[in-house]
Amino acid sequence: MASITAKLVKELRDKTSVGMMDAKKALVATDGDMEKAVDFLREKGIAKAEKKSGNVAANGLAQIAVNGNVAAITEVNSETDFVATNDRFKTLVNTITDLIAANKPADVDAALQLKNDAGQSIADLIIEQTQVTSEHTSLRRFAVVEKADGDSFGAYLHNGGQIAALVVLEGADEATAKNVAMHVAAVNPEFVSRDDIPAERLDHEREVLKKEALNEGKPEKIVEKMVEGRLRKFLSEISLADQEFVMDSDQTVSQYVASKGGKLKCFVRYEVGEGIEVEVKDFQDEVNSQING
């Protein structure tokens, strides 16, 4: 058997744009023959699928799966919302999320190696999806959240999975936690409580508000009170605990949870495509590029 060196693997990766493990498997299967390895990858459809990785996948679905005291929240992307709404894609997302909740992988690379009951890895399933749809599909991110026996998970999907919110409460019950998850999906807080906000950010905001009040010509003696009032408004915008509860604006989220015998612990919120820069093309330019291309 030929020696499969790192240099050989890199050469095949450069030629086909496949992942390292796929390149190594192809070289092992073809006894190190580069041309046969390229054919092997093409026959498997892997090279074609991997070459799609240059396309921007900003659509897709977010999903949540609960497995006992472990929950997983994921975002799986596709290039178009048309693909993201078909049953095959939904099944893939559900499978990925279930496997992550059951196995608690450390990162995306580890998650891609997880296998279903049929022995197919998540990476294999994604490649298969790409082959069928001719669209780049990817597991963009995930988070694994664990709770204690007395805690409650709250899970909520908005608009079929365009936004997913996962909440953990100490105590309370699942219904209360789900209500908080709905709030998180709607309002998009940054932090659980003011205690989680970095001190330098609060100090900076306080200083900005003070200068703002002084520039308005307010007397020095009332500026501090004004600043504290405006700071509370700032906190209500970014701190979950301080926000007015969407289902009852007469109380904050923390007051609502406390009334149910619980306490906020943590939350994760995913919105599909957030932070992904999508190139906006002029339709006429796009048509011309295809005609001339």
TrEMBL record:
Residues 71-274 form the Translation elongation factor EFTs/EF1B dimerisation domain. The keyword Protein biosynthesis applies. It is found in: Cytoplasm. InterPro entries: EF-Ts_dimer_sf, Transl_elong_EFTs/EF1B, Transl_elong_EFTs/EF1B_dimer, Transl_elong_Ts_CS, UBA-like_sf. Keywords: Cytoplasm, Elongation factor, Protein biosynthesis. One of its GO terms (molecular function) is translation elongation factor activity. SUPFAM superfamilies: Elongation factor Ts (EF-Ts), dimerisation domain, UBA-like. Residues 80-83 are annotated as: Involved in Mg(2+) ion dislocation from EF-Tu. GO terms for cellular component: cytoplasm. Its main location: cytoplasm. It comes from the Bacteria. NCBIfam families: tsf. Associates with the EF-Tu.GDP complex and induces the exchange of GDP to GTP. It remains bound to the aminoacyl-tRNA.EF-Tu.GTP complex up to the GTP hydrolysis stage on the ribosome. Belongs to the EF-Ts family. This is Elongation factor Ts. It comes from Secundilactobacillus similis DSM 23365 = JCM 2765.
